[in-house]
Amino acid sequence: MADTVIDSGESEGSSALFDLLQGFISELRAAGLPISVSENIDATEAVKHIPIQDRAAFKYALAATLIKNNSHWRTFETLFEVYFSLRGSEYSIGDDDDPFGELELDLDDRDAPPGQGGEGSGEGLTPEELAEMLFQALMKGDDAMMRALSKQAVKQYAGMEPGRPVGGTYYLYRTLRNLDLDGLLERLMEQAREDSPEPLTSLEERLAQDEFEHRLDELKKEIEAEIRRRLVADRGAEAMAKTLRKPLPEDVDFMHASREEMANLRRAIYPLTRKLAVRLARKRRHGRKGPLDFRNTVRHSMSYGGIPMEPKFRYPKPSKPEIIVIADISGSVAAFARFTLHLVYAISGQFSKVRAFVFIDGLDEVTQYFEGVEDISEAVHRVNTEADVIWVDGHSDYGHAFEVFWDMYGKDVNSKSTVLILGDARNNYHASQAWIVKEIQHKARKVFWLNPEPKAYWNSGDSIVSEYAAHCDGEFEVRNLRQLEKFVDNLV
Amino acid sequence: MPHRFESVDAVRTGLASANYLADDSIAGIVYLADRLQKPVLVEGPAGTGKTQLAKSVADMLGARLIRLQCYEGLDESKALYEWNYKKQLLRIQTEKADGTSWSDVEQNIFTDEFLLTRPLLEAIMAEDSVVLLIDEVDRVEVETEALLLELLSDYQVSIPELGTLEAQQIPLVFLTSNNTRELSEALKRRCLFLHLDYPSMEREKEIVLTRVPDISENLADQVARIVRAIRQLELKKAPSVSETIDWARTLILLGIEHISEQDAIDTANILLKYRSDIEKVTKEFSTNSKVHFEAAAS
After folding, report:
1. Chain B contact set for A199 (CB, 8 A)
2. Which of A24, A133, A378, B196 has the smallest count of CB within 10 Å of its CB?
3. Looking at per-residue confidence, does B247 or A91 come out higher?
4. Is B202 near chain A, with CB under 8 Å?
């Protein structure tokens, strides 16, 4: 298990461990994690105190010294698995005996469950037997059994061949399709219902389902890890690490986020807004000193025998800007609009007033959805489902949307308002009506254009961002949370 | 200097005897903190036992816990040290009568006698073994963080009039943060990082069993399961471990042995502190179908 390469006991071994660690750290850096030299030194120091045989402790020791931000944990964990889970030449695909270390239980080591005829060897399992054993293991929550079975499942279903240039997700898909987890969940629930002497109440049902879903998730993770292990054995850790390089949540592109990345983004936005709000409130309070507070100064002079040693100042009350958000919520840019609205409303305390308008080819005011609502994501959800934004065909028409805005709400724009326009300015070759933006700029304090497209694509095809941008006080590329946060921070 | 802990396992059992259930990462990092002589930055949602960890470690070592509660506007004179200027004034007045020269007076009034130690300096000067807890470090301004840096990396404090005071013994230092703002890189770099999240269901059950006397295994199990289900919802504030414990105590007081939906809904206000959250949970538990909250992927 602890192969010679990573034996920390010998001096030769520890230098190999050092090399391994340096490789790992450069891999982490390549994945975008900021790791300083002193953290590197700490990690090198830390592993001396932890036996590498204790994998969990080893992993936490590295994490504690290298990772200082919890959102980086996933990236770290994946790379750690790839890098340290199996080192050494003896790992290769196709061996029948379990090549993955004695720690893990193999099917052969276990007594076959009753009815299996005592032949536990993996090759002998038919798909039905495998499914049945999996069902039993899930029902009992038998982790070791589940691990062994997931290994079998990958062996049988994934159809992995050495050197095949296919990604891990493909194998995962193949394996999961054969296992039919949804069907399994249903069977598990039925079994739970049968086992219970009385009919399950809805709460019990709910809890049982949670439990099974949790176990299935574990199973899925096991399968993923197994596939990764095999891919590493086939391709080598460095190559594998490269394919696993995923952007950090704050760097994920709004317009091309996958479903899973979207979910991560939604989770990331809440702490981000909270942090932003705290930071802005503090900035406001500590930013400048107000005029001299005479009463307060005199009061404090008492402790110095009437001499005003400590001048006191009033807290400043800078005027708060009024924000008008006009957002394109058609197809590809919808996600971007959603996050921006979320962020703007989360810090709405920093503004005297926030008004929101959304459009595709028609325009609708959605300010009222956010009023008196505690849950911003709920309001954003309503914006997407209830706002009346279709005028003709539901293809973006910036020109018409601006016309509607100008006719109906143009009078509300005044010298206190800051106008944010969100969109990619892909106008489907309609008339631009850029004069309206010009008019708005005349009346408003500032007009900013936020574009979720990479700068290189601006003004290509039907994008006419420069026509509008000519009348804006600034146009920004805002493709990910990091850029969005920066913009909002500067806005206040 | 001798190490405090023999092994990771020793930490774990020690903490368990202080009624703190440590998982692998907690025990491992506390062990490392001792070996590497580095402070630990504990981060995570409120109520996951961050402060308790420092208390329990102090408890298990039989060490004195010195606590610095951070708040906005905390400064040097509250965190590090302050000159006792009233006493200094008195001294000057008395010496005036004797006709002592200025340089003598100056030398005399900047000595230990006139120094008021605050938590950080106290931890450094302590002769006995201490655990220093710097609580909610994210509450101080970024500039104030710099106060901590010298202490955290070199275990020393520089006082212009006295010179540099080095630690008598290296204290174990814990910093906690609720992550309301990003801490500076300089601070993070000096610490070991420990993220304390909500515990897994099994661990939470164990925690309830150790912290709530007279609770049955069955009830603890239900409590942990329901809390896990609640945490999966998108809430403004998910229930913390301490709230779980409170809830379990409430259930015992009410004499509930088996939690029904109605019980869960009636007592939800112990777990949740926002009206919208309580409504969400009520809705969730009273309907059979499981609604997944997905912001419209339009």
Report:
1. none
2. A378
3. B247
4. no
- Among partner residues A50, A60, A68, which is closest to B25 by beta-carbon distance? A60
DSSP B292: -
* B192 backbone dihedrals φ, ψ, rounded to 5°: -85, 145
Please list, in sequence order, all residues whose beta carbon lies within 8 angstroms of the beta carbon of residue A36, skipping any fewer than 6 positions away: B185, B189
Residues of chain A falling short of pLDDT 50: 1-10, 88-122
Question: Residue A47: closest CA among chain B residues belongs to which residue?
Answer: B32
Mode of pairing for the β-strands spanning B40-43 and B172-177 = parallel
The sign of the CA dihedral B92, B97, B102, B105 is negative
Query: What residues of chain B lie within 8 A of the CB of A380, using their CB?
Result: 295
The most distant pair of C-alpha atoms in chain B lies apart, rounded to whole Å, by 89
Domain regions of chain B by residue span? 8-80+118-195, 85-114, 201-286
How many CB pairs lie under 8 A apart between chains A and B?
Answer: 123
**Considering only CB atoms, which chain B residues are within 8 Å of A266?**
295
B275: nearest CA in chain A? A374
Q: What is the Cα–Cα distance from A322 to A318, expressed in whole angstroms?
A: 13
Average of pLDDT values for B187-214? 90
Residues in contact with B251: Cβ distance below 8 Å, sequence separation at least 6, in sequence order: B219, B223, B259, B263, B267
* Whole-number Å distance between alpha carbons of B47 and B198: 9
Nearest CA in chain A to B232: A210
Q: In angstroms, rounded to a whole number, what is the distance separating the alpha carbons of residues B80 and B103?
A: 26
| Homologous superfamily assigned to B8-80+118-195 | P-loop containing nucleotide triphosphate hydrolases (3.40.50.300)
CB A279 within 8 A of CB B181: yes
Q: Please state the pTM of the whole predicted model.
A: 0.71
Instruction: Please name the amino acid found at residue A89.
Output: S
CA distance A376 to B276: 11
pLDDT confidence of residue A289: 66
B85 and B93 Cβ atoms separated by less than 8 Å? no
CA geometry: angle at A150 spanning A145 and A156, to 5°?
125
Q: What is the pLDDT of residue B58?
A: 93
Question: Does the beta-carbon distance from A64 to B287 stay under 8 Å?
Answer: no
CB contacts, 8 Å: A54 with chain B: 8
pLDDT value, residue B38: 92
- ipTM value: 0.81
Q: Which of residues 35-74 of B touch A (CB under 8 A)?
A: 35-36, 38, 40-41, 43-44, 72
